[in-house]
Amino acid sequence: MSKERRADIVGPGAGALAKSRPDAPAAKVLGERIILGIDPGTTVMGFGVLAVEGQALRLVEAGAIRFEPGDDHTLKLRAIFRSTLEIIERHLPDELAIEAQFFGKNVQSMLKLGRAQGVAIAAALQRDISVMEYAPKRVKQSITGNGNAAKEQVAAMLLSILRIADLPSSTDATDAVAVAVCHHFASQGRGSGASVKRAAGKDWSAFIRNNPDRIR
């Protein structure tokens, strides 16, 4: 059977480590909107949960879920689906913002990431949650003003935007928080909004080089 484990999860309170499984689902505050951000992957899936009340943003939980690298691909997909449902049931999000996949020459890698994205989206749709996807460059542009910004720049801006002391060390978790913030900005009319345009093949190659652990 597929096994998954949570790692590096940050919850309420700057720098505080939250329990991976809260004792009970959090009650939703009247007028509060919950955004779930996901950075899909078959080895690591990053997630970030934001609470929005007016113009105020609050990071509720963020982390990365790692899946057994030796598992059959279909078992990993099942684990991704179940893990996404667990997060949904824990936080009752109103919307899912997910990072869009790249298109490029590495067909097998592209298919694996696409399937990971697809099952996460399916989990949200099963709970009648609206879904929007954002290209990585669009997310970086929204957060930093530069579509080619380094991950460190994105993380630094998120700390400022969310007014928190730190983020999970996992870049997958940071990317998930970033896509959630990007979605918030887009829904507020800041930036160019959601994009389903695909990056060029050279960007996909760069993604594979920079994230070799995401696809196995």
What does the model show?
By secondary structure, this protein is α/β, with parallel strands linked by helices. Helix content is 40%, strand content 21%. It is built from 6 helices and 6 strands. The protein has a 6-stranded mixed β-sheet with strand order 1-4-3-2-5-6. Strand 2 and strand 3 form a beta hairpin. Helix 1 packs parallel to helix 2.
As a percent range, the share of helical residues equals 40-55%
What structural category do the secondary elements indicate? alpha/beta
- Rg, please? 16 Å
| Average residue-wise pLDDT | 81
SS summary, helix count: 6
- Poorly predicted regions are 1-8, 10-24, 192-205
Shape by Cα distribution: globular
Content of β-strand: 15-25%
The major β-sheet equals:
6 strands, mixed
Distance between the termini: 18 Å
Walk across the major sheet and give the strand order. Answer: 1-4-3-2-5-6
SSE blueprint:
Elements: E1 4-10, E2 33-39, E3 44-53, E4 56-67, H1 73-91, E5 95-99, H2 107-126, E6 130-134, H3 136-144, H4 151-162, H5 171-187, H6 201-210
Parallel strand pairs: 2-5, 5-6
Antiparallel strand pairs: 1-4, 2-3, 3-4
Helix pairs in contact: 1-2, 3-5, 4-5
